[in-house]
Amino acid sequence: MASNANKKGNEQKRVAEMLITLWQGGRIVVKDLEETYGVDERTVRRDIKAIKAAVLEQRDWSWNHDLVQRGTSKVYAYYLTTQDELTYAEVLALLKMVIGVRALSKPEMLTLREHLLGLLSPSHRENARRLTTVTAGTYRPVGYNAKVWPAEETQPHIGASTMEKLPLLDDIATYIQADKWIRFKYQNSTGAVNTIVGKPTSVTFSAHYFYVWIYTQQQGNEQVYRLDRMQPDSLRAAHRAEQPKNTNEGERVNQTYLLGNELTSEPYEIQYWGWPQTALDSLPGVKQVRRATAEEERHHPTGTEILKTNPTSVIISGTGQMQGLVLWIMGQGALVRVLKSPKLRAAVLTEIDRMRALY
C-alpha cells in the first residue's frame, strides 16, 4: 500500500512539474523526461497524453510540437501556446519597428522585446531573438547624440534618451479614458519650462516621437505636445473647465507628419518629379494624385539621376501641417515645386532665402 501511494505521489509530482515547465513557456522532450525521472518511454508518453487531454479542454491554450536535436536524431519537443498570441512574423515585425523608430529608452525597448518574445514558441522565440540581437545591442534612442555637446552647455531636454516614456503614456491614456483635465510642466524647444493646464484628448505617433493632443482653455483649441518634453513628476489632475469639441483621431494621425503648430489654411498642390510613392508614404494627408500635363511638365528640372529614369511628374494635392510640409519640401530639393497654396509657396520661398543667406 505504501509503495502504491509513493508511486502515485511521484506520478503526480512528475506531471505537475511537466505542466509548470509548459506553462512557463518551456518544452518537454520524451527522452529528457525519461532520464530526469528514471522512468520508461511508455510512462512518459502516458503522462504527456494525460496533460495534452487536459490542455485541449482549455480554450486559452493550444498543444504544439516542433523538432529538436538529440544526438544524431531529431525528436519531438512539446510546448503550449495561448490561442490569442501573435504570430512569429507579427512579433518580428513589431520588434523591428520598435527598434527602428528609436522612440523608447534602451531599458524600455529591451523589456518590451522580452515581453514580445515571450508570446512565441521556444523555437520561434530564439529565432526572433537572434534576428534582433545585433540591432538591439547597438540601439541608440532618440536624444542619444545629445552627449556630444560640451559639458558646460545645457541643451533642452537632454535626458530624452533615458526618459521612461511608457509609464507617462499609461498615465496620459488613463486621464483620457477618465475624461479628466491635467496640469503639467512642459519644456519647449528653447529650454523654457511652462505650466500647462488642459484636457488630453488623444495620443499619436510620428517619426520618432509620441504626441499628446491637449485642449487648452487659454488657446481655445487643441495644441500638440511632445510626450518626452512633459515632466512626469509634475503631472496632476486639474480642475475641469470648458469642454473641447469632439475631434477625429484618425484625421489627427494624417496631420502629424513633422508636426507644426498650424494646418495649411487651404489644400496644397505640389508637382513632384521623384518616385510618386515616396511622396505618398511621407504625406498621409494626400487627397488626389494625377499625372502632370505637357504644359506642367515644361518646368522639368534637369541634371538629377532619378529624373532620367522617371521623367514624368505627378501633381499631388492634399492637406497637411505647414511646418512639416515646408521641411519635407526643402528636403526634396529640385524634385518638388509648390503650385498651391500661396501661403505654402511663401513659406518655402522664405526658407530658401534664409538658406541662401547662409552661403
Automatic annotation (TrEMBL):
Domain (HTH deoR-type): residue spans on this chain: 14-56
Keywords: Transcription, Transcription regulation
Residue intervals of the WYL domain: 168-231
Single GO MF descriptor: DNA-binding transcription factor activity
InterPro entries to which the protein is assigned, alphabetical: CBASS_pafABC_assoc_protein, DeoR_HTH, WYL_dom
Keyword Transcription regulation: yes
A Pfam family reported for this protein in Swiss-Prot or TrEMBL: WYL
Transcription among keywords: yes
Protein name (Swiss-Prot/TrEMBL): WYL domain-containing protein
